Amino acid sequence: MYVSMNWIKDFVDLEGEDLEQLIHRFTLSTAEVEGIEYKGRDIKDVVVGEIISCADHPDSDHLHVLKVDAGEQIYDVVCGAPNARAGIKTAFVKVGGQVGDMKIGPAKLRGIESFGMCCSGKELGISDDHSGIMELDPSLKNGTDLKEVFPIEDVIFEVDNKSLTNRPDLWGHYGMAREFAALTGQKLRELPVKDSDYVGDAEVPVEIRNRDLVFRYSSVRIENITANVSPMEMQIRLYYCGMRAINLLADITNYIMLELGQPMHAFNGDKMNRIVVDTPDSDMKFTTLDGQERDITTDTLMIWDGEVPTGIAGIMGGLDSEIVDDTHSVMLESANFDGVSIRKSASRMALRTDASARYEKTLDPEMTLVAVKRFIKLLYDSDPGMKCTTNITDVYVKKYPEISVSFDKKFIDRYTGIDISSEQIRTTLELLGFETAQNGDEFTSKVPSWRATKDVSMKADIVEEITRIYGYDNFEIKTTLSPIIPAKTTRRRAEENAVKDLLVKAYACHEIHTRVWCDPDAMRDLGLTPEDNVKLVQSSEEKGTGILRTSMMECILPAVRQNRDFATEYKIFEIGRVFEGTGADGCADEHRHLAVCLYSKDRTEKNLYVEAVEMINTIVDELKHKKASYSKTETVHAWEHPKNTAAIMVDDHRIGKLNTLYPSIRSRIAKNAYVVCIEIDMDDLLAIEPAEFAYTQPSSFPAVDYDLSLVIPEGVRFETIEKCWKDLHIAELRKTAIIDIYDAGEIKSIAVRFSFVADDRTLTGEEVQANIDKVIENLKKINVNLKA
Amino acid sequence: MKERIEQLGSQFNEALAKVADPEALEELRLRFMSKKGYVSELMKELGKVSVEQKKEVGQMINSFKQQITDQFDRKKEELVRLQEEVLIQSAESYDESLPTADPCGSYHPITLVQRELEDIFESMGFDIEDYSEVVTDFECFEAVNIPPFHPARDMQDTYYLAGNNQLLKSHTSAAQNAILRKYGPALKENGRPIRAVFPGRCFRNEAVDASHDNTFFQMEGMMVDKDISISNLIYFMKTMLSEVFGREVTVRLRPGFFPFVEPGFELDIKCLNCGGTGCPSCGNSGWLELCPCGMIHPNVLKLGGINTDEDPFEYTGFAFGLGLTRLAMMKYGVKDIRTFNDGDLSALSQFVSR
Lengths: 788, 354
Fold this sequence. Notes:
The structure holds 2 protein chains of 2 kinds. Chain A is of the alpha+beta class. Chain A is built from 21 helices and 38 strands. A 7-stranded mixed β-sheet of chain A has the order 28-29-30-34-33-32-31, with helices on both faces. In chain A, strands 3, 4, 5, 6, 7 and 10 form a 6-stranded antiparallel β-sheet that branches. In chain A, helix 2 crosses helix 5 (173-184), helix 6 (232-240) crosses helix 7 and helix 7 crosses helix 10. By secondary structure, chain B is an alpha+beta fold. Chain B folds into 2 domains: 2-89; 109-348, 2-Layer Sandwich (BirA Bifunctional Protein, domain 2), CATH 3.30.930. Chain B has helices spanning 2-18, 22-33, 38-46, 51-90, 109-123, 137-140, 176-190, 230-245, 298-303, 324-332, 345-348; strands at 127-128, 134-136, 166-168, 194-203, 215-225, 251-255, 261-270, 287-296, 316-323. In chain B, helix 1 runs parallel beside helix 4. Chain B is rod-shaped. The mean pLDDT of chain B is 91. Chains A and B meet through helix 2, helix 8, helix 11, helix 13 and helix 14 of A and helix 5, strand 1, strand 4, strand 5 and helix 8 of B.
């Protein structure tokens, strides 16, 4: 929103104030200013000039050769404006003068010398009228500086609309002026208004049928309007604030909207007989005054002339009842509609107007009547012949409750942490329009109607009013006096950090982030489709935001494919959330998962798989001082390999899954690459209690090593072989290690080194041999024999 | 005897000069020093010497023995030295400049920034919390004082889940209620102030481009105790942000509207790039809008079980929100926000460690 300081000065005396400083304070106390523009600084030596003669240029079909009387001197000027003619007075830039970026010097136009320039409103930067040169009031004295005739000089600043969302009172200059009054300690002047001078019983027929969506509707009927051009001062202000002058009636409604923040609509009085406010019974079409046909639904509030629709309430009027240049009578609408309803309708129709933007902020209904009187005043000033032909009709359907807030200085001191005097508290509130009764250090403030629609309702709000005007830069800052109590890292966070550190530092994995929803396109490249799961509302499938992921792999595998040319070998991981459908309560079943993918073109799949197992073992050992075990499991996802998909178990609890890829999916990632996937539920892992770390004194007696070379039958897992000695619980068997694996097609063998040691003696060969014999005996039972 | 000793002496010297390896040296030593060696022979012959000469000849033999032992030791040392010299000379000189295998993994930049902030907050006594990504409408909006028809709740801004009243959280404030409920009892029973930060992934339905993403990270923080004031808030934010940026920062507060705080502020810091004179990175204003903050709204404290209607201001507190994604962009000079979620290793693998 653009704010004109000239306009502000109508309501508050800023004599002697540094405007730039003041606008800076406004940023710190009220709302964010995005920029300041100094209007008229680039206008120099522009005066009232009278065209005393006008002849056609001998060498041109559109140029004129003029003599312009600029008061102290008559100038020869070549001018191309179609409306240039003898007898009119216009804006004339003398040689050496300036308009905008244009500096005026003597020039030769098609052979004729020209000294100065006649200019249009657009060239002067005070309107967008470029149809011809300005035509000024003939009574103006030639040579008068144009800046004395029109308020060309102004300081305009732009406020970020987003910072005004909770301040309905700041959507007009009068409310803005109140802030400047509070900042400078000046009194806010009253807004000049004029009542209807009609005497009699006639009212505007207003019928509010939908009383839920209307707070207030004020109106008056005015006739005998003859003027149709608004005063230049009004036009300039509208233009500087981003609007365009149209005609007197439309300009006044816009002017009041910019001044008070109250949107108004002037219906053509010849077309409008009876105002009805209601939602339609069924969906319908309606043509707004911009000529567009709109779809109207049954929850859209409309204005009707009897039963004929004439406007969308609070958004835009209709084409048929529009004010035209020869309109002589108006029926005025100054109303207050439900903000939420207006916002929803505007957003559904994608028709956000200056009016709807204001209504959706929940405007003060007290303004409607003031706005009508202000309209009468402004119209009368331009057209004293106008006549009100009804009383001001005012239908006040719903009132906001009056709000009073009681508080004491102690509360303000406690909440601010500083000492603001009682005097300053009261003065600040009064300047902002809060009528405040003070009894010593106790106060009761009445929240003014323009702040009471949603913005201010309690003590904390009052603190904001006082402190923002006091200035946060003026605060003495102090630390809290709260006791210091050390924070403890949760195991959840410690484990997440430890897993990341291990993967990055010990296994050179790269951490990535993916989205929580499936991207069907990326999955299709792998021959996958998103699994049925929790869906998002109103999502667009092509953006890939339709279905939440049920496994991290739905998002990580596409990332593996995407990076297939990054290197011949890499590992990536992410800790993120997955959703396993919905629980019994209907809520999404959210889980925190770790996913790791190992990718290689250089190594065998088996080799990668072994490394994946090592990673998992390391994680479980590091975090829990426990050993993970594995059991092959049925596949549930399309990418899992039927033979190499294993559940990861700790303490008989399943914490995750390890798998190689289904062949056709693997080949879609890269023809000659292998991928191994790990997915672990971090909360299932967290639930595993870590084992106590136990130290044992090393024996002072020597260990005896005994190596066995075993022939392994097809399909026998090492854990089965291991049971052969583990189940014996031999106290002296302290360690076993695999020292060799031999795999030559038919024959698979494995060499195991057994280390025996006792704490109290050196073991004899016979003792060791006796234990080894028991192991061999067990091994024979599962057909594992010693290598010949 | 004398002659014999002198003769043996020159014989030893001659032989020693020819010795080139430890084996030859050992052979020489045995020839002279073993039980059957020349020195033993001499000792035997000493018996035949007259009593008068015995002392003198005995001394001569001893000194001869000492002499050849010393020479022998020196030669042995020299041989070892020569041998090592040969080893050293024949050794390969290695090239340290050869490229090595690259065993470096990488952290996601968000992880790096998040850990840095968490360490700072932990050092100030803050608990680090985490929260789910799917939350209820109550947690995300109602509990933080966002009324039913607020624009933030519109479909076009928020990802709602089909078939229930859940959504992907649109801000970390969605965890405020749970944090207040978790730590409230310790505050009220033991006077342990609530100090907590909660980083997390947030989601907003918007078109993705270089500066907007529908998935991003925030870190929210809260402190609640008796008598927490605006003055405390400003002090804390200044101290905390000075730690975050590693140098003293100048902060300023402007009124800002957020439904869950009252008063609410936009906090700016004086541009670290230009020091406040204005440059492209601060849009020539000299200030950078950094984070929203404010005094926690009484309704939020009430819904969090901290205050009751009898005294809605018994406990007070402040809250703030930091854009982790934005901080990571500032810290690493990442120009395109999509870098964070696109999973492109050529970009992400550069963030090797902190």
